[in-house]
């Protein structure tokens, strides 16, 4: 089989570079980049250069740059590879994805594919086109490979451990997730600068469209694994609310490197600060199961880092992922029983060790903690390598 050729289109988010942290046996070392000349392209190139020059396991990427205003048309016409990667501006992303599919190119795309309800028909068209042409159209949600998320899905699948999913109620939903992310953070010891357009919700989307996509995906994949969900018949939305994180000009400068507010953010300023609507609460039902989600973006983590919690209620046990100070700020999976599930849990963990060697269970009072060896905790960046290999 000939080598797969990568096409990187308008890289505006560092996730696209994470795909190229390693070399792949069946992927050409020469990647083609189509983008306008600007800071987003330069940031991507600097990250690839750091991968190529690192002391341990340096990569060997060769980058051929096609920088022009008509980059998308040139990509469609020249078609130098077989897989296009999209990670960056979310407004209009679905149109670029469709252009690649129409040209016979497979697509890996960072979430979200769309940020507007009006674009649902365009997403349907893209999915149908990919199926008809036997092309891969795959989202780049590496969080599916996080070990506690994987083990939660596998324990939910065991009726002797979890039982049946409980529908729950508004006050006590059958599934609940919270996520706290931070706007200012460091990656590999350096400030992770964000492009100014990241703070334009018309371009980037709001909180639910970003991290919330992961949360919805995780709830649905856990409750209904390998099942198609039809939003028109399976989903009933009960309530949703949003609120801003306020950003001063000094903070904006620190996180973007820009000295002044760009014109497109002027309408979002209040008292000299930016109202960045990135926080969301959502309550809905999926096939009768009540779901509560909350995603929040704070400025900077005081301790630990980004955190996520999850609760799934079954008739025999509750599965909880906790990530607080007691867990040393890393996700840990707990099983809280409602029935005598000890023997079933032992059997299930014993079976799962074949694929996940080293996992175990630890009794803690009335509940169990699923123990996970460090070698299975790969971290955010490594999940993109796993996804790309798959």
Q: How many H/I helices?
A: 12
* Cα-based radius of gyration, to the nearest Å: 22 Å
CATH topology of the largest domain: Dihydrodipicolinate Reductase, domain 2
Q: In oligomeric terms, what are we looking at? A: single chain
CATH architecture name of the largest domain: 2-Layer Sandwich
Write the element-wise H/E pattern from the N-terminal end onward. Answer: EHEHEHEHEHEHEEEHHHEHEEEEEEHEEH
> What class, by secondary structure content?
alpha/beta
Number of E-state strands:
18
What is the overall shape? globular
CATH class of the largest domain: Alpha Beta
N-C termini distance = 17 Å
Provide mean pLDDT, rounded: 92
**Overall number of domains:** 2
Q: Into which percent range does the helicity of residues fall?
A: 25-40%
Q: Uncertain regions: pLDDT < 50 for 5+ in a row?
A: none
Largest sheet, strands/sense/barrel: 10 strands, mixed
Strand content: 25-35%
Index terms:
Dihydrodipicolinate Reductase, domain 2, alpha/beta, 390 residues, ten-stranded mixed β-sheet, globular, Rossmann fold, 27% strand, six-stranded parallel β-sheet
Protein architecture, described:
By secondary structure, this protein is an alpha/beta fold. The protein is 28% helix and 27% strand. The protein has 12 helices and 18 strands. Strands 7, 10, 11, 12, 13, 14, 15, 16, 17 and 18 form a 10-stranded mixed beta sheet that branches. It starts with 5 loop residues before the first strand and ends with a helix. 37% of the residues are buried.
